[in-house]
Amino acid sequence: MTKGRLTALFFCLLSAAGLSFLAFAAPQNHVWTTATALGQLDAAAKDFHSLSADVERTKVTVVVNDRSTETGSILVRGDKMLLEMKAPDARTILRTGDNLYVYNPGLKRVEEYNLGKNRALLDKFLLLGFGTPGKELQKNYLVTFVGESPLDDRKTIELELTPKSAEVRNQFSKIQIWLDESSWLPVQQQFNETGSGDYFTVRYSKMVRNPGLPDSRFKPHWPKGTVQIKH
Q1: Distance separating alpha carbons of residues 42 and 167, to the nearest angstrom
Q2: Taking phi first (over 0 means left), then psi (-120 to 50 degrees means alpha), and beta for anything else, what does residue 97 get?
Q3: Domain containing 186: what range?
Q4: CATH number of the domain that 193 lies in?
Q5: How many CB atoms lie within 10 A of CB 29?
Q6: Is the pLDDT of residue 105 over 90?
Q7: pLDDT tens for residues 149-159?
Q8: I need a labelling partner for 181 at 20 to 30 A (CA). Which of 26, 43, 58, 229 fits?
Q9: Residue 12 host element (H or E)
Q10: What percent of the chain has pLDDT over 70?
Q11: pLDDT at position 216, please?
Q12: Which residues on neighbouring strands pair with residue 83, listed in sequence order?
């Protein structure tokens, strides 16, 4: 898999990142610092199994002042993820362990990838969510508490993540996360691309923690006549 293709796949998968911090309310009148925020993540990570949500992703290309937005839905359970994006660029992205499928209904084609050695790099991005404790997050990012601010009528705390790995920094210079203080769920993330100044934001809504998601939801089922391509 080429580095450019891998980056494009990361952009799709990162719509899922950060979704699985659990609903775990902090004490009232809590004074936030980087240490207390990471401690809250440790506490919140103890009881995560699955999650469903709506997602809105906006890509901003700074040099031409272009902004494009797409919407969809996501299911997460363990190392399984199903992301379904709507028109105009409808596609389905399914991850099950080391296997990644990208289905394009317009082309009636599904591309299958084995992440293999690239899984380690992917998982560094996915440490932003899926119930990962704060202490694990610290292994791969310099975590900084930025402050408290209202977002979508919710009181949030903002964390800034600077990748420690040069390989990850080649993709993103920093990542920002806004967490709802009342539920400890992410309201928004912003991924700042290295070099270009471009960025994309991901907003989450209608989140359900630990819904019952059977294995069948994460099985690769494609319409009859779909062309399958393995990479």
Answers
A1: 26
A2: left
A3: 3-230
A4: 2.50.20.10
A5: 5
A6: yes
A7: 888 888 898 99
A8: 58
A9: helix 3-13
A10: 81
A11: 94
A12: 74, 93
